[in-house]
Description:
This protein is 57% helix and 5% strand. It is mainly alpha-helical.
Amino acid sequence: MGSSKQNTGKIKTNFVPRVNQLDSIQLDNEITNLLRQQIQNILQVLPPGLLSHLQPEINFVLNSALWNFSIRTHYATFGQQMLSIAYEKDQLPSAKLALHYLLTTVLPYAKENAQFRLTNWSRVQKLLQLAENALVLFNLVNFFKFLRSGTRPSLVDCLLRINHRSLDGAKRRTIGYSYMTRELVWAGFMELLGFTIPFVNYHALKRKLRNLLRIEAAPQRQDERVELTADTRCAYCNERVILPHHMGCRHVFCYLCLKGNQLADAGFQCNVCDYRSETFRKVVVL
């Protein structure tokens, strides 16, 4: 009777929610990606291509360091430590630790190395593709098994038959709804912006604001002589004029610049002299 109570207490103490186990895997991936990004930022100061051929080795050293300071030292990944869970120490003797290192660090390095340096070996690439497809299938089967049993979320855990234990006993995971509420408000605001912004004519609004802030009204000009030379630039994009057109003033526009602005804003004005016209004509070189 007493032993059954002790076993029940042990089960409750070592119980780890499924969400914590899945979140620990996600946290491990985020930590790895974050460190890789930091390493890439550091390597950017070096001459281009200096260490690009050593990318598999750099990732291998990084993964080995993460494994050494997490699994080997604390019997838990950094993601698991953040969620106060760990592996059972008695389930990870030296032989299993070495096998865990082989499966989680050495084999990924061998695969990345083969994909990086053996690109001309078609048979090797086909074998790698078959192995990756098989791993995807096995991971899917193991995931459904994990959802049913609540233990061993990763394929490595299943192969090595190692379980998680909670470092905080049967402490429940607290949920903060303030973060969820903030996300819902922000998502609603973004949806509102996405719905209303397309109805705002940015070009017309910019023109009206510019006219409102102008101190003196620009005089409306009659047709002036348009000068077109080899150095003439478009009054809108300031690039060499393509298919030169004008709208009545002396300034020359590319056809697409002028037509696009008039389609976007019926009251488009020359952005240099503010001349306004609803029509435009091709510049004719005499």
